[in-house]
């Protein structure tokens, strides 16, 4: 999603390994939890499930890990399934989204290890450059709180709109202070933003959904999120108390291995960026 810079350790300090998180608070701290059987991980199809499938086929057996991947196409079910124990972990989200989800739904999901970043992008079937959008153009944005705010920040960072002073991660169109092109915003489910491209003038699309739709963020986006000081890297997460599950620790180590880094770099060609661990 634009000319992406190499991520640095400093940029991704917030995404460092968090194996030391407290194991209390989930009811499993007594050690009674059964950690036998396969590790079941909920994941978005692209790139998360693809990365996990690479681990399963190439690295898991040697590490003594029995890994099962369950694909979800929305941003809600993976966390609720992790909370209720239907799955053991998930891999699909970033910290601002998780913070908002835990706060609003009373869940207790925590990050384990940060793996990659998918830059958010603005795409269009009608114009080649963002400044070519006409007055009154309609722009589709994700309708969940964090991704909508992230989408509006992308537009603001590139001068299409100005957000009110002090606006945070949960910005909505009501937080727009200046809108010189009189852009109209169509709020749709994040997974539907690529499909909306034929019906709107442009759409802000999450990296995983862009790739699933055959878009190449590094080439096709007319605006691409910067990696600098970006808090939206994606991580493996579990319900609090399960951070010390030996299966989770094995997977966390594999997800930041040189083999996975190379797989991400080779397969996604800059549209998905592996995180540098410090």
From TrEMBL:
Family: Belongs to the nlpA lipoprotein family.
Location within or outside the cell: Membrane
CDD domains: PBP2_lipoprotein_Tp32 (cd13597)
Keyword Membrane: yes
Membrane protein topology class: Lipid-anchor
Species assigned in the record: Streptomyces monashensis
Protein name: Lipoprotein
Domain of life: Bacteria
Signal peptide (from-to): 1-23
InterPro entries hit by this protein: Lipoprotein_NlpA (IPR004872)
